[in-house]
Amino acid sequence: MAKQASVFPGVDIAAADLLTACGQLVRRLRAETNNQELSWSQLAVLARLEETGPTSIADMARAESVKPQSMGVTLSVMEDEGLVERTPHPTDGRQFLFALTTAGIEARRRVRAAKQSWLAGAVATLTADEQRDLLIAAAVIRRLADSSTRDPA
User: Fold this and answer.
1) Domain segments of the chain: what residues?
2) Cα 82 to Cα 14, 16, 85, 104, 106, distances in angstroms
3) Could you give phi then psi for residue 48, rounded to 5 degrees?
4) 3-state secondary structure of 112
5) With contact defined as beta carbons under 8 Å apart, do 95 and 89 qualify?
6) I need a labelling partner for 75 at 20 to 30 A (CA). Which of 29, 43, 69, 149 fits?
7) Which band of pLDDT confidence, cut at 50, 70 and 90, is reported for residue 3?
C-alpha cells in the first residue's frame, strides 16, 4: 500500500498537537473523576468487561497489554470487592470467565457520569462557534480512531 501524500505540509505538526491535546484531555478527565475508589487498571477492567462481556484472564491481559499474572491480581482484588465475579469457562476447565457484578456496573456508571458531568460543564464554557467546531472535530477524531489505515513502514 502506497503512503498517501498529506493534504497540507503541517500534517506532522497537526498530529503531534492532536496527540498532546488528547493526552491532556484524558489526564484531566482522570483527575476530575479520580475519587480514589478504583485504580486506573480497575477502571480499565470495568470498561473492558462492559464492552466485551465475560472474559478470561488471558484475554483481558492481552487486551490491556499486561501480563496475565498482573491481570489476575487486579481481578482478584476486584472480586474481593464484589465488582466482578468468576464462573467456570464453558469449554476450558482450566480457565475462568470474569464478568461485572451489579456493584461493578454501578461503579462504572458512576465514573462515566462523573466524566460526562465535568466535560459537559467544560464544554458549556465554550462559545457557540467553539462548541460547533468541537462537534465537527469529535466526528473527525472518531473517524481517525476507527481508521484501519496503517503505515506499512
Assistant:
1) 11-145
2) 44, 41, 7, 7, 11
3) -65, -45
4) helix
5) yes
6) 29
7) low
Grid cell of 101 as nine digits: 457484578
Q: Which CATH class is domain 11-145?
A: mainly alpha
**How would DSSP label each residue in 70-106?**
HHHHHHHHHHHTTSEEEEE-SS-TT-EEEEE-HHHHH
Q: Are 83 and 46 in contact (CB under 8 A)?
A: yes
For residue 59, the surrounding DSSP H or E stretch is: helix 57-64
4 or 104: which carries more pLDDT confidence? 104
Is the pTM here over 0.70, yes or no?
Answer: yes
In whole angstroms, what is the distance from residue 102 CA to residue 80 CA?
Answer: 14
- Hey, how many other C-beta atoms are within 10 angstroms of the C-beta on 139? 10
CA distances from 51 to 54, 55, 63, 92, 132 (A): 9, 10, 12, 22, 29
Residue 32 identity: E
Q: In angstroms, rounded to a whole number, what is the distance separating the alpha carbons of residues 13 and 79? A: 45
